[in-house]
Amino acid sequence: MLNNSRPIDIFESMKNLLKSRIVRRILYFFAAIIIIIILLNNFIIPWYVKSPETIVPDVVGVPHSEAIELLTNMGFDPMVVDTTYGENYPPGTIFLQKPKGGERVKQGRNIFLFISGGEFVVYVPELIGKSILDAKFALERIGLKLGRVTQLPSDKPEEMIFDQQYAEGTTLKKGQTVDITVSAGRGGGTIKVPDLIGKSLAQAELILADSSLTVGKVNYQISLTLLPNTVLDQYPSSGNKLNPGESVDLFVTKSSEPEIPDIPEEDKEVDEE
């Protein structure tokens, strides 16, 4: 019986296999790895091992321009990484380097530098009009502390800050204190201010008149729940003392309905015609 099978042509099979794109990529990849290994073994590693070593100079505390110049002249490659607040070093000087000064490293190595931005400063917030507790929180939130609290009689509401040691926007170092002056109310009087909150404006006027006091400025605020002319707040608050004839400012509700302006009599006559 005749055998009709053809002999396998190895070279023809290899030729067909190399025509595959995937096979070619795999071969290129391994060829690249072999070339890299040869370069490392014969050129890069021997050069690195034989390259001279030197001691890193200590540039901490040195102005950054001088530090960069010094390191460059010594064959290093200085790189500024970041500028950070450093309380112990003047602004613009190096406060940290890696590797540290005194270490023995290969020449040409990168030296990473951190520049001091000086002491961290914050801006004093506006405290006037706040309570002591609110001021304390506002200061602590940015790293400042509440200092001496002085209470003085004033025409401001009781317990309200009406003066502060440093004006808003003043720069201070973290941890510094800010003194404040708090209103003790309108002190020195003989008449105790009555509680007017919840009363109508007419009732408040009568109550104040009975106490030898008067209604001061009336501030109207819209309310959807209370009747118009209801006292929402007062200044000074109840319990403070005033002198006879002094006034109490009131915050009073008003209707949310739009006000209809009065029509002059002349215009009314024209409309009727």
Explained architecture:
There is one protein chain. This protein is α/β, with parallel strands linked by helices and 273 residues long. Among the domains are: 53-116, 2-Layer Sandwich (Trypsin Inhibitor V, Chain A); 121-183, Trypsin Inhibitor V, Chain A, CATH 3.30.10; 191-254, Trypsin Inhibitor V, Chain A (2-Layer Sandwich), CATH 3.30.10. The chain has helices at residues 10-18, 21-50, 64-73, 132-141, 201-210, 265-272, and strands at 53-55, 77-84, 94-98, 104-106, 110-116, 121-123, 145-152, 161-164, 171-173, 177-183, 191-192, 214-222, 231-235, 241-242, 247-254. The strands form six sheets. Strands 2-5-3 form a three-stranded mixed sheet, with helices on one face. Strands 7-10-8 form a three-stranded mixed sheet. The radius of gyration is 42 Å and the shape is elongated. Residues 1-5 have low confidence and may be disordered.
The name of the CATH architecture of one domain is: 2-Layer Sandwich
Shape: elongated
Order of helices and strands: HHEHEEEEEHEEEEEHEEEEH
Task: Please count the beta strands (DSSP E, at least 2 residues each).
Answer: 15
CATH hierarchy class name of one domain: Alpha Beta
Runs in which pLDDT lies below 50 for 5 or more consecutive residues are: 1-5
The structure class reads alpha/beta
CATH topological fold name of one domain: Trypsin Inhibitor V, Chain A
N- and C-termini, Cα separation = 133 Å
Sheet with most strands: 3 strands, mixed
* Arithmetic mean of pLDDT: 81
Number of helices: 6
Strand order of the largest sheet: 2-5-3
